[in-house]
Structure formats: structure tokens, C-alpha cells
């Protein structure tokens, strides 16, 4: 009937206006969220975003008259600034397309590790200053070479500790730090985590 039809139309109009309101609220929340994120950006991140926006505008303004003209994918941005980009991941960049970062062409004169061209000397070893040997900072403490030496450093006299020489579980229990040494072990592990370790394949 006409009355039912009018009720259905009124309900449809109401749903339509509710959807418009929801969409408007969502867009407003999204704008606020994006502004909050952009507020935490560094100057470098902001400059990279400005450059990407400029490229996106240029791509949008290109006139493509026929179907055979070059297809520009806005989702796939060029990787312009590679330095420090490991800390600023951008989903619009196809990093897999830029997988070739060069060959390991240089060879260290001291440790014969292969290096990239332009890599600073001494990144793989201590270079000339220490005769090509990797040297740990003194702040890390004494370096031990054997398990027995490590146990002596932790516990003093090894003969007091009952253990079977080849028992892995027993060695783990022996090397568990005593309560009074736990703090120094934690500090040592924090130092290790805070240091930058460089390796060459």
C-alpha cells in the first residue's frame, strides 16, 4: 500500500542521513588522528612526506591521452632518500624493487672482510690502530676464553662447585649469577644492548 511505501521511504531517508553523519564523524576523527601523527614527525620525515606529496601531485597532473601512454602507479612511490630510511618505513614505496644496494667489492686490508664501496675504514675490525683485531671496550669487563675461566670469574674457587664436566644443565646452573652479582650482570647486559655492533659477512 501507499502508506507502507511511504514508511519504507522515510526509514531509508533516515538510514541515509545516519550514514552521512557517521561518515562525517569518521572523517573528522581520521583528520584528528593524522594531525596527531604528523605532529610527532621529525623535520626529515616531514620533508620526505612533502616530497612524496609533490610527486603524487605531479603524477596526477600528467596528461595521458591514450591507453598506451605510461601508467603511473601512485601507490608505488620512488625511493628517493635511502639514508636513514630504515627508521622511516613508508608503505607506498616498493622496497623490493630496490633490493640491489651494490656488491661487496672492497676488501679490508687487515681482516679480509668484504665491504661495500664507500664504507668507512675500520667498520669490520679495529683497522690499523690495533693491528686488525676486534677490541672490546674496557668498560665491558674482562673477556674469558674458556668455561672454567668463566666459572672462576663468577664463583672464585671452582673446586667447591660439584658438577659433572659435560653436563650442560649443570653448567647452566653453575653460571646462574648469585644474588649479589645479579645487578652487575644486568648492568653488563644493558651495556651490551646499548652498543652498536658491526659485522661483515
From TrEMBL:
It comes from the Eukaryota. This is ATP-dependent DNA helicase. It comes from Spodoptera exigua.
